[in-house]
Amino acid sequence: MNNKEIKELFRKNRPMLVIIMLSVIVLVGSSYAWYTVSIESKDTTTVTAGNLDLVLSDESGVINLTNTVPQSDNNGLSNAPYSFTVKNNGSISNKYYVYLDDDAVSGTRISDSNIRYSLEKNSYSTGAVGLNTLNGANGKRLLAEGVLQPGEVATYKLRVWVAESATTEIAGQVFKAKIRIEGEQTKHIANEPELRGDMIPVTYNGTNWVKADYTKSNWYNYDNQNWANAVTIKSDKRTTYKSAAVGTTINISDVNLMLVWIPRYSYTLRDKYGYKIDGASDLSQATPGAFDIRFVDTGTVETGTGKYTGSIPSEYFTPSSFCWGNSCDVESTRNNEENKEIPGIWISKFELTGTINAITSIPNNTQLTNQTNQAFFNAIKTQANNGTGTTNYGLSGNYDTHMIKNTEWGAMAYLSQSKYGKYGNTNYTNANKEIYINNHNGKQSGCSKGEPGTGETGSSNGVASCPHTYETKEGIGASTTGTIYGIYDTSGGANTRVMGNYNKEVGDSGFTSDTMPEAKYYNLYTTTTGIKGDATNVDGTNGFYTDSQSFVSSGHSWVGRSQYYNNGFHAGIFAYNTGINNGGAYSDGGTYLSISTW
Questions:
Q1: How many domains does the chain fold into?
Q2: Which of 107, 166, 285, 412 is paired with 592 by a 20 to 30 Å CA distance?
Q3: Which helix (H) or strand (E) holds 11?
Q4: Cα separation, 267 vs 302, whole angstroms
Q5: What are the tens digits of pLDDT across the range 453-509?
């Protein structure tokens, strides 16, 4: 029997129509339901308990299953969706779970293997997925989950259809299910990554990068050093990947930016050198310990010293890297109306590659160098913001792409030196907890020596061919996590330029006193003391891992990080230095880009 005949049989046997009941149960069990082929919404449901205040409401509220016969995925994806939103009206972040539960049926239930669905969250689609891929005991399937900041909204669109592969065996069978939403108050959980425009969430399957399920939070796990990763796609393939199913391979040749999410947190450093994690060396300046880090929501701004003594963490401080505005770096002006507290930042996964006119961040490519600070800054701003950013990288919404600031480098460094980063990764012990050096003198992005830097500054440690690429067992040791999900090139490779400046001295940067950027785009230093959270000298991290330390001053006015491929043990994520030709074009000077979102 061909597919046309099967469909005709379905039309003649209306008793086997699939019935979908969509009801909403939020904690207290209030619900509404429909039992017709067309499913319509009626209500708004609210649950309030302490600081938990979730509101569920419907928008279009219709799943039109008038053609309840086997459908192709293309046709199923064009069905009218059932739309609903979840909003957090509470005062702290909330975690919520969306379940698709079996409901009682009279007769035989259609197997999940014969049902297809797609779920969009904030316009990011799972593509066409088999319902049998959702795990859950007794028909309770976890459809989606997420974290909502106070005042934040998640919008969903659900489509369901009978799989094209279904046969006449399901004639007379019924599928009934209900949507159930639960919530819980949360504190100190990593903020959900804020995708912008056509960014694609990705995860690694051991061989390839694949499209991740944005409707689930298991595409990242900071407790396991799996930081959230996303990519932007070249314009000619962007639409294809956007609509592709979860699990689709993402070809690096189609990618222009790989990005890693640094969620908002507060930190405090115990005693002088942090606290020791199992497998680490005894604490010293050369073998420092972990920062105490706790993730916080945008309503939390902690103003402690960032240091504590004794065994109980205290004095937490929320770095200014998680504030976007012209006066964030000064504690007394941080709460000015012009500033925004943000849930996190994206940082390019690799030091920038490509050309100054077509910036990329992809592995196994030559890092982009030999540019002034102004050239880097202007190129990033021009190519990756507003309408141009939408065209070049598919970015849109509330965001700002810019050359990485010194405090943003610090946010990455402190997270790496915590239980959530490489220092907390139990696959590494003693000296190997330090990020491995990129010692390739050709400055190949993501390259790894397979061990931390050794030898004296200026020694010829650079090699002409890459010892270990980023995805290999030894290569991942060069990331901030000790897994493939971290940020690379933070030790060695090209000497990294960041936007940190002394007293507005332009040096050889290409800027003039009239063309210096707005204050929000760089950290301003007027003394020889750093800004809290910038991983220089203010928190006592100077000299960690014996990394180089040279603070900006008059005549040496621009901050550099990471040091060169041949700087041995003086290279590293805690290295900071001056000059890099004082902001001028230099063959060993590269940079990263950051994306602030709100």
A1: 3
A2: 285
A3: helix 3-12
A4: 9
A5: 987 655 566 899 999 999 999 999 999 999 999 999 999 999 999 999 999 999 999
